[in-house]
Amino acid sequence: MRLEGTYTAIVTPFRDAPEQPVDWDALDALVDAQIAGGITGLVPCGTTGESPTLTPEEHGRVIERTIARAKGKAQVIAGTGSNSTREAIATSKHAEHAGADAVMIVVPYYNRPTQDGLAAHFIAVAKSVKVPVVVYNIPARTGSDLAPETLARIAEAAPNVVATKEATGDVLRAQKIVQTMGSRMTVLSGDDALTLPMMSIGARGVISVTSNVLPGDVSRVTRLALEGKWDEARRAHLALLSVHEAMFVEANPSPAKAALAMRGVMTDVVRGPLVACSEGGRKVVAAALEAYAKAGR
């Protein structure tokens, strides 16, 4: 499986009702829009998909629905991570059975395991499935940082660990992984604003939040970079920076859902403890999108 290009960490739409049920029609429409926008793949049930607030049944159904809707038109990397190794194994097996092309396992959160514990966790999950595994390292959210040396240990013990989503905010970290592991480990940017800098040192694409809103535009940046058209890629990337920043003006995915709600795609409902984007946040999001549109992007 070739992992490169733009993968959208899709939001999970909820209906504006007391129970805040998943809006399955809105999810279908979102998947369709992503495919029409030319993205390489979809990542359901990641951080942006509010996976911690989904019930186990909802989690499984979101993955199944995304796979069914994509119908082979886009790769599906299912978010199946957990701070419980047993739960991550069960969820990964379910995603594999449902037809996911790969699974993405976030570094266990809250537990704060040692590097040995992290290695044991990822190796156990990877060995429980045959599909490719993407490691997701985001220390700011998990409280633990997967060291590059530990990633190398995991890759040696589990051949199906083939990629890492680097959301450390550190291009030097990504550069070190590329330098030491080469083609053995595909690096994907986990920060929209760092996509091009990371690709310039060997990353192969991005798992994006912004592409929920602008799938074609984000895809264009990675496509141009992969084609070696660096000047065009740079102009396209820099034009998007204000939008990337706006997507994180408040806790993700509230700004992205606000942007999608402005376009009538879905409600901006998020589940607690998150709250919908504030009025000030909405103004930032709206202004960034309006300025981007006026610039003829």
Task: Please characterize this protein's 3D structure.
The chain has helices at residues 24-36, 56-70, 85-98, 115-127, 139-142, 148-157, 171-181, 195-200, 215-226, 230-246, 254-262, 279-294; strands spanning 5-8, 41-42, 75-79, 102-106, 133-137, 161-166, 186-189, 205-208. The protein has 297 residues and is of the alpha/beta class. The chain has one domain: Aldolase class I (TIM Barrel, Alpha-Beta Barrel), CATH 3.20.20. Strand 2 (41-42), helix 2 and strand 3 form a beta-alpha-beta unit. Helix 4 runs parallel beside helix 6 (148-157) and helix 11 (254-262) crosses helix 12. The chain is globular, with a radius of gyration of 18 Å.
Main pleated-sheet profile: 8 strands, parallel
SSE order, one letter for each helix or strand = EHEHEHEHEHHEHEHEHHHH
- Across the major sheet, the strand order is 7-6-5-4-3-2-1-8
Kindly provide the name of the CATH class.
Answer: Alpha Beta
Q: Helical region count?
A: 12
* Straight-line N-to-C gap: 32 Å
- As a percent range, the share of strand residues is 5-15%
Rounded average pLDDT? 97
Name the CATH superfamily classification: Aldolase class I
Number of strands: 8
Helix content: 40-55%
| CATH architectural name | Alpha-Beta Barrel
Task: Provide keyphrases for this structure.
single chain, 297 residues, alpha/beta, TIM Barrel, eight-stranded parallel sheet, 12% strand
In short:
By secondary structure, this protein is α/β, with parallel strands linked by helices.
